[in-house]
Fold dTDP-glucose 4,6-dehydratase.
Amino acid sequence: MKILVTGGSGFIGSAVVHLARARGHRIVNLDAMTYAASPASLADLQGDPDYRFEQADIRDRAALDQIFAAHAPDAVMHLAAESHVDRSIDGPAAFVETNVLGTFHLLEAARAWWTGAGRPDGFRFHHISTDEVFGSLGETGRFDETTRYDPRSPYSASKAGSDHLVRAWGETYGLPVVLTNCSNNYGPRQFPEKLIPVTILNALAGRKLPIYGAGDNVRDWLHVEDHADALLTVLTRAAPGTTYAIGGQAEARNIDIVRKLCAILDDRRPQGAPHADLIEHVTDRPGHDRRYAIDPARIRDELGWRPSVTLDEGLERTVDWYLANEAWWRPLQTRQGVGERLGRAS
Ligand SMILES: NC(=O)c1ccc[n+]([C@@H]2O[C@H](COP(=O)([O-])OP(=O)(O)OC[C@H]3O[C@@H](n4cnc5c(N)ncnc54)[C@H](O)[C@@H]3O)[C@@H](O)[C@H]2O)c1
């Protein structure tokens, strides 16, 4: 299958591109190369005749039309987005422009190309979304495909808006869309502004490890390679119009994630031990969702997908990846906003 992946130079996109190439799919990666993208993430594919890169912005309809015409993809996997909640608090406009308007332009370009190609049944527009659109859970319960939308940050509201557009293009125009809403991802090549890479890199440098509030916010963690596998499973097997919730069934409080990372680093870099002494509680993020958790029964029962990496094993692998790949992360640390406290709102 020839897949047009948007956002392929980002964290999850690059994992999808690697897995899709390993499974023999041809890839066109469309990415604007924002601050969150790393050319190094896909450097190993340079010279691969079945990997193509198009630097383009999903808000640029003319560029999208030209890329669809040039490559005639069998499917779109749409991951391009502004993705950092803290940045969405400081600058929501970019989130509305890329996540809502950009998705609108991509849907229109896909619809025009699909219509012009005779509306092939096998075509898919796969929209990759987040569990954050469902809001915040209390101590109990889990999100699934029937959960009511209740976004609470500019990021999650913009993703919710894009989800609604995608479903509407399926219902109104018959575009063969599929949607997935996934829990928090972690693993190699995650931009060093998210909890896990920030913790690893600060700890290595002997810097404080900031924890928002008490650190008791709970997330359901999924290794990015398991997410990529779930996404390709949905893309190739799900019926048009369907939605799947994806999660790792690995709930953990932020403070416990940080403590686990510190313990792994105590083992790998004993000269800095105990790294947990660097933990520092800082003012909480405004509107910080308390708990996310996914019930992945539908994707397990209908498509046979389940995660393969346990949280403890995945965290160890992630620490080892950052220790071995300083050349990947070091240049990203000088990018705008990295290492600063963002998203406090005033
Ligand atoms: N990270 C998570 O835990 C998580 C969980 C569930 C869903 N998601 C969703 O998965 C997708 C990918 O997330 P990620 O963590 O890999 O994000 P990321 O920030 O690491 O990567 C986003 C990529 O999109 C590109 N991009 C941004 N704006 C663009 C534009 N206007 N035009 C073209 N390209 C643009 C960036 O250059 C970057 O390469 C997002 O849609 C996100 O909402 C993420």
